[in-house]
Each structure stands twice: as structure tokens, then as C-alpha cells.
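Worked Example 4.2. Consider the chain below.
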Amino acid sequence: MDDRIRAHLATLEAAPGDVAAFRALETIYREDGRAEELIALYETRARLLAPREASPLFGQAAELARHAFRSSVRAEELYRAQLTVEPDCQTALGALAELAEEREDWTGLAAVLERAEAAARSSAEGAQVALRLGRIFEEKLGRRDRAALHYGMSARLAP
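Applying the procedure from the previous section yields the following C-alpha cells:
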């Protein structure tokens, strides 16, 4: 570990909220392609901040875990952490839906989409999510009763 990193880590240990040390480490880790350390830095910092400030850091850590580090399990943990501080975060909900669909985890996908349906920002968006949920319940989970419920909701929400 180089001396710059050691010095900034020592600063953060003594003063966890030190923005200059955080930014310096962020730059070093990015330039050196140290995704794992950058993810840990973001996550640690996010846990110190208010929810509004923490959410984007959890999101950045999740994106790095998913794309640079290729760890969908770690990414999912971080997206869920993001949802604990910002329950209606569309980006996190969308990413969790994609991860569940990639795994063909239809029950997990339905749970995420139900949350997205409740968090929809418009009637049109809610109608689209409800329609997708109806299809998943009907075609993937064999739950026609739940499918009918979501199809009905989609029809009520769509003009």
C-alpha cells in the first residue's frame, strides 16, 4: 500500500467525515482500478451520512460491484442498502429487478416489481409495472389470481 493511501486512511480513521481524505482516496482508487477498495470506501462513507447523501454512494458502490467487480450478489446487497435509506429509489429497484430476472428468480422479481409498482411516480409508470407483474404471475409463477389483480390494476391506471 502506498504512503498516500496510508495517510488518507489514517485521516479517515481519525476523522471519518473528512471530505478531502475521502475524495483523495476515491481518486487514487479510481485511477488505480481498485474497485474493491472503492466499493468499501463508498459503503463506509454512506453509513456515516444522512440518508439523502448516503443513497448515491450506495448506488455507486452497487454499480461498481455489478459492473467492474462482476459480483451480482454484492451489488444486490448494496442496492438493498440503498433502498433502506431511499425506499423508493427507482434506480435501485430497476437494478434489483434486472438481477432477479437474470437469475430467473421470478418470485424475487415479483417482490421487487410490487415495490416498484407502489413507488411508481405516475399512473402510466404504475400501469406498465402492473402489466409486467401480471405477466410474471401468469406466465412464470402460474398464479392467475395474482395476475388478474395486477392486470386489473394496470387497466385502472392506464387511461
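The CA atoms of residues 28 and 70 lie 21 Å apart. The chain has a mean pLDDT of 95. Compare this with Example 4.1 before moving on.
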